[in-house]
Amino acid sequence: MTVRTMREVAPEEIPVDGGTAVQEDPGRPVFRGNGEFDYACASCGKVLASAMDSAYMTRRVRIRCGRCRTVNIAAELSVQAARRPRRMG
Ligand SMILES: [Zn+2]
Question: What is the pTM assigned to this prediction?
Fold first, then answer.
């Protein structure tokens, strides 16, 4: 299994109505799939999503680490401000 380190989410990236998956049990990944990558916390290296397909790790998938409370997103996604109502550009 290849481990990919995630990155910390920038505050402006989180949509107003967006949810974040929370790792309740630091000993268990939040997601478990059938893909080829493990996704690890940017801060402490804990695996948060196991055996994931990279296509699944979109901007909507944000995971709060159960150990260090860092909110993570896949590192291959560029920092991009979330769309907010009534704001242009
Ligand atoms: Zn962590």
Answer: 0.84
